[in-house]
Amino acid sequence: MENIISVQDVEFSYPADPESNEPAKVILKGVSLDIEKGGFTAVLGHNGSGKSTAAKHMNAILLPDKGKVYVEGIDTSDETKIFDIRSHVGMVFQNPDNQIVATIVEEDVAFALENMGVPHDEMRKRVDEALKSVGMYEYREHAPHMLSGGQKQRIAIAGIIAMRPDCIVLDEPTAMLDPNGRRDVMKTIQSLNKDYGITIVLITHYMDEAAQADRIVVMDEGEIVMDGVPKEIFSKVEEMKKIGLDVPQVTELMYELGKKGIKSDTHIINEEECTEALLKLLEG
Length: 284
Hints:
Elements: E1 3-14, E2 25-36, E3 40-44, H1 51-56, E4 66-71, E5 74-75, H2 82-88, E6 89-92, H3 105-116, H4 120-133, H5 149-161, E7 167-171, H6 179-194, E8 199-203, H7 207-210, E9 215-220, E10 223-228, H8 230-234, H9 237-242, H10 249-259, H11 271-283
Parallel strand pairs: 3-8, 3-9, 6-7, 7-8
Antiparallel strand pairs: 1-2, 1-4, 4-5, 9-10
């Protein structure tokens, strides 16, 4: 398949801080990663692994010290193409309050479109479609500050959708949400990918969220150390634990059963598969 984003041998360091005498901090060490159009990729890594820094290179929030990043063939270091790059790749951050700027939901979703000079009739159509796609149309005249965390995050996502990007990069969008909010946002992300064909790159530290992706990329100390489908990645329980990451609880259960000498399959990553496997064990 065709790639929408291509990260090629990227190195990146945050500069030294003379006030605190902290030296320059190397974050990315020759990272290469291609993101296919229409795919759903989850990126995992413990704090400081470089996953969020890598994400910010995907729509030119950050630029490489060395190496190149291309979005739809456009070099992100070309300052004259920033608008084009960000029209292809939208970004959603951890705290929705940082992306909500208006006092009415529909006005917030329309904010970027106004800045883009989108005609009013087209803007109205895009705002309505975006709110419907995240299940928030009925709240269009509400005040954002009165909504739950999960609802706010869906509004932030709607604001990006209204811009009609080909890809959305989400940097830990559920980190500040309760379980219900997390579940709602993940349903929205799945729908955007499966129903609307939007390419998704999800940065997360929740293993059950990553298990819903088509592909998982694992980062550690500024490098990509694993890349594969969820069943393959999560079956490497000991390798994941060595770099400070967990696996889905059902995979952990299968792993622990195996350590006790009970035949089990660590390629199991969801509750339905786990239930079926346990029933077979009990019947046996």
